[in-house]
Design brief:
Layout (H helix, E strand, L loop, with lengths): L12 E5 L3 E6 L3 E7 L2 E4 L5 E4 L1 H6 L7 E4 L10 H15 L8 E6 L5 H13 L4 E6 H8 L10 E6 L4 E7 L2 E8 L3 H16 L1 E2 L2 H11 L10 E8 L5 E7 H24 L3 H10 L1 E4 L8 H9 L3 E3 L6 H11 L1 H13 L2
Helix pairs in contact: 2-3, 4-10, 5-6, 5-7, 10-11
The chain binds adenosine-5'-diphosphate and magnesium ion (MG).
The site of adenosine-5'-diphosphate has 20 residues, from helix 5 and helix 6.
Length: 344
C-alpha cells in the first residue's frame, strides 16, 4: 500500500452504505466522501442524472421524467441496479484510477438478506474492489464510538439511521443479542407529514418534514417550548399556506415511531444476559447514527430504561470511522468478520 506516484492508487477503503447517507473512508486519509444515498434517474432511459447531494436536492422537485430514488430506503435494497450504480459512482470518485485494486470493507444495514449482501459484495468488486468484506452495522458503529468490543464486557450500541434502527449488545468481539427494526429517522419525518396534514390540512414535502424534525423535534419535554412557522400547500385551496406549530406539537407527532425505537432498546435489554446488563448499567448505552441527535433522546431513554445513556461524539460518522478502523488494523477486521458470521 502507501503513497506512490499515482496518488491514492491501491488504498484500501471502507464504505458505510447507509439508508440516508453513504460515507467513504480511505485508509490513512479518513473520511473522504459523505453524500446522501440518493440517485436521480431519467425515467425514459434509466440513465442517472445526479448522485448524492445534487440528487437529494431534487427530491420532491422533479418533473415527471426525472425520479429521485433512495435505493436503500427502508433498510432493504429496493432497487439493486440503482444501488450498484450509486456505489460504483462513489467508489470511482475517490478511487479514479484502476492500476491496482483496493480491498474494501462495506457496512450494510444488518436487516438485508444474505443474497443482498452477496450482491453488494459483487457490486463492489465490479466497481473495482479486489475483495469486498461485509461488516455488520452495529459492530462498526460500536468500534467507531470507541467501545471496547473485544473485552469480556457488555457494550450496548443503538444506531438510529434513516430507514433502520439497530440495537446490539457486543462482548468479546461478537454480537450477543441484537434487534433490527425498519423504523428510523424517515418514519419520524413521515409522522410529521401526516400530523400536519391532519391537524392543519397542510401538505409538506419530505425535505421540509426532515428540516422541521431537526429544528423542532424532541423526545422529552423542553424547559421552554418553542413556536415556529412552517410553510406548505393548503390541501383545500391548493395554495401556499403558513401555519404556526410548536415543539410540543411536533413531539406529539413523532411519538409513535419514537416509542417503537425505544421499545426495540427495551426488548434487547430484556434479552441481555444479567452479567452483561450489569456492565451496561455502569458503562451506559451508546447512541450513534443521525437519529441520536434528536433533542432529548438521551434523557428520554434514560428515564425509560434506567440505564445511563451516552450520545457518541460525531454520531453520523461512527459507522464509517468504525469500518475505517477495521481497515487500519486488518487483523481486527478479520476477527470481526469471522465472529459476526458465526454469531448469526
Ligand atoms: P443511515 O446510516 O441510515 O444512512 P444516518 O446515520 O446518516 O442514517 O442518519 C440519517 C438520519 O438522521 C436521517 O433520518 C436524518 O433526518 C436524521 N438526523 C440527522 N440529524 C438530525 C438531528 N439533528 N436531529 C434528528 N435527526 C437527525
Ligand atoms: Mg448508518
Amino acid at each position: 500500500m502507501g503513497e506512490n506516484i499515482f496518488g491514492f492508487v491501491g488504498r484500501d477503503m471502507a464504505v458505510d452504505l447507509g439508508t440516508a447517507n453513504t460515507l467513504v473512508y480511505v485508509r490513512g486519509r479518513g473520511i473522504v466522501l459523505n453524500e446522501p444515498s440518493v440517485v436521480a434517474i431519467n425515467v425514459k432511459d434509466g440513465h442517472p442524472l445526479a448522485v448524492g447531494a445534487e440528487a437529494k436536492r431534487m427530491i420532491g422537485r422533479t418533473p415527471s421524467n426525472i425520479q429521485a430514488i433512495r435505493p436503500l430506503k427502508d433498510g432493504v435494497i429496493a432497487d439493486f441496479e440503482i444501488c450498484e450504480m450509486m456505489l460504483r459512482y462513489f467508489i470511482r470518485r475517490v478511487h479514479p484510477r484502476r492500476f491496482s485494486k483496493p480491498r474494501m470493507v462495506i457496512c450494510v444495514p444488518s436487516g438485508i438478506t444474505g443474497v443482498e449482501k452477496r450482491a453488494v459484495q459483487e457490486a463492489a468488486e465490479y466497481a473495482g474492489a479486489r475483495k469486498a468484506y461485509i461488516v455488520e452495522e452495529p459492530m462498526a458503529a460500536a468500534i467507531g464510538a470507541g467501545l471496547p468490543i473485544h473485552e469480556p464486557t457488555g457494550n450496548m450500541v443503538v444506531d438510529i439511521g434513516g430507514g433502520t434502527t439497530e440495537v446490539a449488545v457486543i462482548s468479546l468481539g461478537g454480537i450477543v443479542t441484537s434487534q433490527s427494526i425498519r423504523i428510523g429517522g424517515d418514519e419520524l419525518d413521515e409522522a410529521i407529514i401526516s400530523f400536519v396534514k391532519k391537524e392543519y390540512s397542510l401538505a409538506l414535502g419530505d425535505r421540509t418534514a426532515e428540516e422541521i424534525k431537526i429544528a423542532l423535534g424532541s423526545a422529552c419535554e423542553l424547559e421552554e417550548e418553542l413556536h415556529a412557522e412552517i410553510r406548505g400547500r393548503d390541501l383545500v385551496s391548493g395554495l401556499p399556506k403558513t401555519i404556526v406549530t410548536s415543539t410540543k406539537d411536533i413531539r406529539r407527532a413523532i411519538e409513535e415511531p419514537l416509542a417503537a425505537i425505544i421499545d426495540a432498546v427495551k426488548i434487547t435489554l430484556d434479552k441481555t444476559p444479567p452479567e452483561l446488563s450489569a456492565d451496561i448499567m455502569t458503562q451506559g448505552i451508546v447512541l450513534t447514527g443521525g437519529g441520536a441527535l434528536l433533542h432529548g433522546l438521551d434523557v428520554r431513554l434514560q428515564a425509560e430504561t434506567s440505564m445511563p445513556i451516552v450520545v457518541a461524539p460525531d454520531p453520523l460518522n461512527c459507522v464509517a470511522l468504525g469500518s475505517g478502523m477495521c481497515l487500519e488494523e486488518f487483523e481486527a477486521l478479520q476477527q470481526v468478520l469471522s465472529y459476526s458470521s458465526s454469531s448469526r
